[in-house]
Amino acid sequence: MRLNGHGGSSGDRRKSDFSTVLPAGKLPKNNIIVIQRIQTVFLLLVLPVNIGFAFTPMFSHAMLDPSGWLSNGLIAALLFSMALSVFAVFLFRNRPNQMRWVKRAMFFQLIAIGMNIGIFFTVGRIGMNLLTEVFSVGLLALALVFQYLALHYIDKDEKLVKSMDRIR
Q1: Using one digit for the tens of pLDDT, what is the confidence trace for 71-98?
Q2: In terms of Cα–Cα distance, which of 119, 116, 91 is closest to 103?
Q3: pLDDT tens digits, residue range 31-46?
């Protein structure tokens, strides 16, 4: 394929060859965010899952708490978990530090799950009509699974980099 009017194999393309295919000013910019790591996807999936929890009956039950400590604690734990997950995405250059922040996010997610299970048992009516409440607990557990998978893949990347350093 000839890109710039001169012959040659595809191996001898110069950097300017692509200017014929794409007009000047239409080249991709460096500021486009490209998600290249699966752990980034898992960490970002924590957001919609935790936000989706706000539209479940268990969240409504938590908001009915007369003292307010349960609802405030649940909201704070979820917000910290989401914020730390997003923060960890930007620590991709320092994987050990990224793993520490993901573990902290998992800690807050566990607090939210524990509070949610406490709310679940105080709702009463244990039986078949609590399917949506069980789904609510499952959403928070799914977010924890996403965080665990992100941690697993970050650790896998770190081990790969260490093994490559040993080979050198």
Answers
A1: 899 999 999 999 999 999 998 889 999 9
A2: 91
A3: 444 467 899 999 999 9
Overall pTM > 0.85: no
Residue at token pair 């490559």: 164
3-state SS of the chain is: CCCCCCCCCHHHCCHHHHHHHCCCCCCCCCCCCCCCCHHHHHHHHHHHHHHHHCCCHHHHHHHCCCCCHHHHHHHHHHHHHHHHHHHHHCCCCCHHHHHHHHHHHHHHHHHHHHHHHHHHHHHCCCCHHHHHHHHHHHHHHHHHHHHHHHHHHHHHHHHHHHHHHHHC
